Structure formats: C-alpha cells, structure tokens
Fold this sequence. Notes:
Number of helices: 3
Order of helices and strands: EHHEEEHEEEE
Strand content: 25-35%
Distance between the termini: 33 Å
Helix content: 25-40%
CATH architecture: Alpha-Beta Complex
CATH class: Alpha Beta
Amino acid sequence: MPGYSAKVDPDKTAKAYGYELHCSPKDSRNIAYAIRGMNVEKAKKFLEDIIEKKRPLPTVFHKRKRAHQKGIGPGSYPQKAAKYILKILKNAENNAEYKGFDVENMRIIHVSAYQGRKISGIMPRAYGRATDKNETTTNIEIILEEAE
C-alpha cells in the first residue's frame, strides 16, 4: 500500500486513505479539487448534495463534451465517486475525533485522487475472439487539520 503524497505533522493532523476504490479517477479528481480547503461539515453537505442530485459538481478537469449545468457551466453529478469520498472523509473525521481534535473546527488541507491499479478482465466477442475489459480503480487520500 502506498504512503501519503503530502508530508505533514502527525500531532496536528488526521488522515484517511481509500485504496483501489471502484470509481472513476476523473470524477474523483474533480471532487478533490472542489472540496480542498473546505470545512469538514461544509464538504460533507456538498458531497451529500451531489449524491442526492441537488447540486452539480463543476468540472475543471476533463470537461470536453460535458453537459452544462445551470449557473456553473460544464458539470455533472458523480454519485459513485462522491459516496466513496464521503466515506473516506467520515473516516478521517473519526480519526480526528479519536486523536482528540475538535471535529467541528477541522478543515481539509490535502485531498488527492489518482488512478490505482487496473483490474484486468476479458469480454467474449463474436467468432471466438475476446476483448480486454479492464476496470480502473482510484486511490484517494484526505488529510484534515484543526483550523485556528
């Protein structure tokens, strides 16, 4: 399992890592860009709104041929990636509570989403042929810090 890409003081921060999650790396990267620097409660509300399709996620990376949403431009509702990131965020929040930090006052200082390993698969085709059907996975890391 790889380590975290950011070096931080373990006495002031709480971390969580999602390894080889079955969601889109592109959508995860857009969500990570959106929630970086947010308060934990605000980020949780943002992700829950995406899951319930109340609020679209503005697309910053890979926005070609992406439909425009009201008021934000290109965007979408990546529910699967939002569910995974919400789960990791709650895990980081619980880690902060265990360390004795004030959970209400935590904010996201580092969030990173990148491609994990590919799970190879094969799809049978006509005339006895076969095509690769590989599934990409995503690694997500979140680091929280207490705001002054």
